[in-house]
Amino acid sequence: MRPCDLKKDREIVFHALPAGQVERALVLLQGLDGLVVAIGPQGNCILVSYHVCEYTLEGLETALSSQGFHLDNSLLSKLRRALAYFSESVQRRNVAADEPDIKSQQAYMKVYERHMHGDRDDTPEEWRGYK
After folding, report:
1. CB 56, CB 85: distance < 8 Å
2. Which of 18, 27, 41, 55 could form a disulfide with 50 if both were Cys (CB 3.0 to 4.6 A apart)?
3. Alpha-carbon distance 110 to 116, whole Å?
4. In sequence order, which residues have a C-beta less than 8 Å from that of residue 88 and are 6 or more positions away?
C-alpha cells in the first residue's frame, strides 16, 4: 500500500436544521492538528482532509454528533458513511499489521536459538576427526 492511499478527502454533510451548523463545525475542527477543513460547494457540508492513521471519518462524525451537531441521515449519506467507516477501519488494521513487532521477533529468535535444528552436529569432538 502506498502512503498516499492513507490520505483521505471526505465530505461531512449536515442536516439543514438547525441553521449555522456548518460554520460552527468549521470553527471547531479547524483547531485540530493534521486536519484540513473547508466549507463544501453546497452550503450544508464541510470538506475534511486527514491521514487515516491520525483521524477517521467515524471518529470525526461521532465527535460532532456528541457536540450536538445533526448529520444528514438520507440513505445515500448513510451508505457513503458506512463505506468510508469500513474502508478506513480496514486500512488502519492493515497499517498496524505491517508495522514490525520487535518483541515478537526477539521472542522468535530466542526460541530459534534454543530449538534443535539441522545446523548442529551432536557427534562428539573426538569422533569427528576419526577416519
Report:
1. yes
2. 55
3. 12
4. 8, 52, 56, 57, 58
Q: May I ask the CATH architecture of the domain 3-108? A: 2-Layer Sandwich (3.30)
pLDDT bucket at 32, cuts 50 / 70 / 90: confident
Burial 80-105, CB ≥16 within 10 A → b, else e: bbeebbeebeebeeeeeeeeeeeeee
Find the angle CA(90)-CA(92)-CA(95) to the nearest 5 degrees: 110
* Averaged pLDDT, 104-114: 61
Share of the chain above pLDDT 70, in %: 76
The residue extents of the domains of the chain are 3-108
